[in-house]
Design a protein that fits this description.
about 450 residues; alpha/beta; six-stranded parallel sheet; globular; EC 2.4.1.182; lipid-A-disaccharide synthase activity; lipid a biosynthesis
Length: about 450
């Protein structure tokens, strides 16, 4: 079960109307765009979570901008619904890891050149990259170099949404300084990131975590029994309909094909081990908005050992309905760990990678956890099964305990309240650079906050 209440603004909207003094030195982005009669935004996202962030930012820009907007770049289905025609499928960029990336280097280089050429031809006033720092930073760096080489007077302003996880790696902070050469402003989604970025010469603002927008979209309190799950439009395997005595587990294998291919077989074996202790086990398999992942999971379903319902992406309401009908969740490490905390659903985070990537993580990481809730709370609230510990017998054992141990479950639910407060900007921690003339008439969301910063920004 889960409970979601409307996010309350814990500080006056007048906070947003303060302007960072240096912004007044030159014309804003809107002033320059007004000359052309439109605001051109080149926006790039390389993965599912970024597609959601990008689409919401595009929607906020359309609501807040006094000028018509034109978008171009790379994105997924959600960004395309907001008016983007993607240069190529977003899934082509969704590769994670170090050694996993090597076979794709030539293809990435070709896509990078195509993207730079398209951006230059588009003549944007703004370039926004969302997460996917490997591709995004190379794009921004080479795009800035091209504009400097051509000595163009009206080079676009560069924004990057989601700060790199410098806090997770040894020497991470020391690499921040170089970002200011090709990133004009960084949107941070975690507390304290803004302060550290500014201390290292990178202009930044904390806008809040994107998962807060899930809560504001739902703005309701709901509990859901397994048999109440709305099944319209869902893909069902034989005998998969949940009943009142079903044990329901949400399974979230990831958003990239590479990680789903690695994780889903392990998850499948874990479910097989849980069949005996939980004979009425039903799984809700959440399918990311990635056609390659969708096809792979559909193909794998005939070997799945327990009844399964496929939950498609695209509907925030449906996703949280599925969480609400579940007693626990098994997920691959990622943004979903925060979403499960928002849903107050006890969960287990798992992660495997190429063995050389795992060795690098062990060597370079300076924090003991991989899931964001544990990192922010500095406590192993959510059990993690990482690397060699991510095996079917260990996953089944932890899930069994998570389903039966009420104290263990309650610990996660209680911690979720504290986590949500940490992810929300407070009045005291809000950057003075946040500004928008119209924001008094719009509710707070991270996307509205980011959009208002873009529209009022003046490069100096």
């Amino acid at each position: 079960m889960f409970r979601i209440s409307k996010i309350k603004l814990c500080f006056p909207l007048s906070t947003f109307t303060k302007r960072y003094s240096s912004f007044q030195a030159t014309k804003s982005i809107l002033d320059k765009a007004a000359i052309d009669g439109e605001l051109r935004v080149f926006i790039v996202s390389g993965e599912v979570s970024g597609d959601k962030i990008g689409s919401r930012l595009m929607s906020s820009l359309k609501k807040l901008s006094p000028l018509p907007l034109r978008f171009h770049g790379i994105g997924g289905s959600l960004m395309c619904k907001q008016g983007l025609t993607s240069l190529f499928p977003m899934e082509d960029l969704a590769v994670m890891g170090v050694w996993e990336l090597l076979p794709h280097l030539y293809k990435f280089r070709v896509m990078l050149k195509k993207t730079i050429d398209a951006a230059t031809k588009f003549k944007p006033h703004v370039v926004v990259t969302v997460d996917s720092k490997g591709f995004s930073f190379r794009l921004l760096k080479e795009l800035r170099a091209r504009y400097n080489k051509q000595r163009l007077d009206h080079s676009p302003v560069h924004f990057h949404y989601v700060a790199p996880s410098f806090w997770a790696w040894n020497g991470g902070e020391s690499r921040l300084g170089g970002l200011s050469e090709f990133v004009d402003h960084l949107f941070c989604i975690l507390p304290n990131e803004e302060r550290v970025c500014r201390e290292n010469g990178v202009e930044a603002s904390f806008v809040g975590h994107p998962v807060l927008e899930d809560a504001s979209e739902l703005n309701l309190v709901r509990t859901c029994k397994p048999q109440e799950l709305k099944l319209e439009g869902l893909s069902l395997s034989k005998d998969s309909l949940p009943s009142e005595d079903s044990t329901v587990i949400s399974v979230l294998p990831g958003s990239r094909l590479q990680e789903v291919e690695r994780m889903l077989p392990i998850f499948s074996k874990a479910m097989k081990l849980l069949k005996d202790p939980f004979p009425n086990l039903v799984t809700l398999i959440h399918v990311a908005s990635n056609s390659q992942v969708d096809h792979y999971i559909e193909k794998s379903l005939h070997e799945w050992p327990v009844p399964a319902i496929l939950v498609p992406s695209g509907s925030t309401q449906l996703k949280y309905e599925a969480f609400g009908a579940s007693q626990a969740a098994l997920c691959t490490s990622g943004t979903v760990a925060v979403e499960l905390q928002l849903a107050r659903l006890p969960s287990l985070v798992a992660y495997r990678a190429h063995f050389l990537t795992e060795l690098l993580i062990r060597y370079k990481a300076k924090i003991p956890y991989i899931s964001l809730p544990n990192i922010l709370l500095d406590s192993p609230i959510i059990p993690e099964a990482l690397f060699q510990a991510c095996n079917s017998s260990n996953l089944a054992s932890i899930l069994k305990e998570l389903l039966l141990d009420e104290k263990m479950r309650e610990t996660q639910v209680v911690a979720a309240e504290k986590l949500m407060r940490l992810l929300h900007p407070s009045e005291g921690g809000m950057s003075n650079s946040i500004h928008c003339n119209d924001l008094e008439t719009h509710r707070y969301t991270p996307s509205n906050l980011a959009a208002s910063t873009i529209l009022s920004y003046a490069k100096h």
